[in-house]
Amino acid sequence: MPAKLIRSINQYLYPQDEIFILIRPIITLINNTVGVAALAMPFCFHQCGILLSFLFLGITAAFSIMSCDALIDICSTHRVLPFEHACFKALGHMGKSLAELSVICLLFGYVVGYYVTIADLSTGVVSQIAVTMPTHQLRFILLVTFTVTLVPLCLVSKVQSLLRLNVFTSLFYGVVTFHMIFILGLPRLISNMPWEEMNWWKPAGLIECIPIFLASMFCQTQLHITSSKSFQPTLSNMRLIVRVALITVAIVYGFFGFFGYVAFISSKRTIFSGNVFLMYPDDLRSFCIRVGFLLTNIVSIPLIIYPLRQTVYNLLCQKVSRCI
Length: 324
Prior knowledge:
Number of strands: 0
Mean pLDDT: 78
Distance between the termini: 49 Å
Number of domains: 1
Structural class: mainly alpha
Oligomer: single chain
Number of helices: 10
Largest sheet: none
Order of helices and strands: HHHHHHHHHH
Low-confidence stretches: 5-16, 320-324
Helix content: over 70%
Radius of gyration: 22 Å
């Protein structure tokens, strides 16, 4: 009787255990998706209007989910991972090479964007601490320092070993969103919100904001890092991971963009900056937010380098059979 009771309890608890196991890849995928695009979300809400921005966030999230489902189906059909190898199965050497070159160029651009953000934030933080003016020499020294520091993290063999860093960055994104909503945005929304100055529907701003919306939901090249030798999710679990991660990211972007727009819209402000940190008040809380976001950007670079170096290695392999 006790043995049957134990088995029934284990069978009852197994779905919960499975849910807890899925939390790890969900957090990893969220952290890989959320990035510097969050800083430009208030700018997008200002340029496109509130309703149109929410609409495009939903559209880009839906298209990202559909594209991820297509990649999952392709990799499942050909039983290979990542999807560059599926391109070889379907399109041959040329298809594989084109896919790898595209991924390399795209991820390299992401790394450059992260480095630009890190250089701007770190120079401002150090200058504020040292009470000096930012210089090009200081910017160069900080970039070299961060590069040397990041090399060991970028060379890890298993991206799952960065889970603790993923948890830290995900929690900090929550703190940043909480600060934007309840400290900066909501008080102004309740007290003295200039409703007549707000943009609700402004299609003219889509030209410069569509690339930001599309890049904000990009996670296709990181799909294969959600699996490991110890955890091989099923197709349904992979789709669940993608949906939960992208819906969470869309909600975070929506709240951050809307309340950031509410917090800093003003008739006296002639230019609405694409980097929301440039409009933050000069107080201790804002300084801590800048420092924390700087650290999250530093931690996010190894998560981009991981698929980048794998793709470079696969491209340079002379024999495809060795890569697969």
